[in-house]
Amino acid sequence: MITWRSGTVVSLAEAWSGAVELDVATDGGEPMRALAYPALVGEPAVGDRVLLNVSAQARGLGTGGYALVVARPDALPADPEPGPGHLVKARYTPLQAMVLGVDEQESPHHGLLRDADDLAGMPVVVADLHSALPAVVAGARHAATIAGRRPPRVVYVMTDGGALPAWFSRTASGLREAGWLDACVTVGQAFGGDLEAVTVHTGLLAARLVCDAELVVVAQGPGNLGTGTRWGFSGVAAGEAVNAVATLGGQSVASLRVSGADPRERHRGISHHSLTAYGRVALAAADVVVPVADPADADAPWRDAARAALLARVREQAGELCAAHGGHRLVEVAAGADLLAALGTSPVRLTTMGRGLDADPEAFLAAAVAGVHAVSIAP
After folding, report:
1. Residue 368 contacts residue 290 (beta carbons within 8 Å)
2. All domains of the chain, ordered by start, with CATH?
3. Among 156, 220, 253, 279, which one is least packed by beta carbons within 10 Å?
4. pTM > 0.85
């Protein structure tokens, strides 16, 4: 189940909040690019001996294709300072981490959250792919600018369907550094956010009541898991998040997974993942947002016949989704050249399934219009 290697750090590479890339010469002579989380294993240095989990790299996986530093056996970090917190995440794995939960008894926010039960109509954009996060925020900021308002305070609630450590996400780190994201709350088995919470429910409440969020984006971390089956994909949790938002009195906005470039037919137009999550798993109602061409926009990218046909397909699929569900509301948002330009200002690289903005603009525009709509319905 685990492929192991040991080796020596030969150089340090790029670092971002919570993570460090390094180059390792394994004992067998094989060079490897590895990733270390200093909060778990301490700060790596050239010459350190390291124990690596290379399972993902050995299988040639994409998002998770690093060798991961499990330990620096000759330079173990000091014991953490005694302090509050007894939430254990990544529970009963060799690298389980003990954190202070925002909702636990030792938290200074426990009293605030103990009986909290209401999001007071706060808009929550739900997405099944981590790659939607910067596009949603770009759309929200664009909408606020057009309306002559300041950008909303955005909090990311990271679920545990993908990466468990929030530190793995360069996207979240880059958005924080640019001031586009105000906080990250890690829920379930995910950890490493500004706040830790036990469930999506307390994560949402903490985002509003502790972080003063005006807009929340709920999505898994990097590394969507899919099996090519109807139910075997980690994004199914997007439907469950819609239910949580409704239970707490928020306004759910469904960000659709859309593609005009994916070679797999089941992901062309609206992905079957979104159709399942929002059509079968979500029992509560959400606003299902689709991009549509603005006929007044002479520079719109949708003048191309193939792209116009894709938009029409997405609109038709979303209409069928809403009709079958019975509670969802179909919302059309104009997606013109100005929104495409707003996506181009993202402080982090836009990429989904290995494709960027130029290769698959519909993927990012579909997420951006969810952010645009969320700003329009904010209390």
Report:
1. no
2. 4-71 (2.40.50.140), 113-377 (3.40.50)
3. 279
4. yes
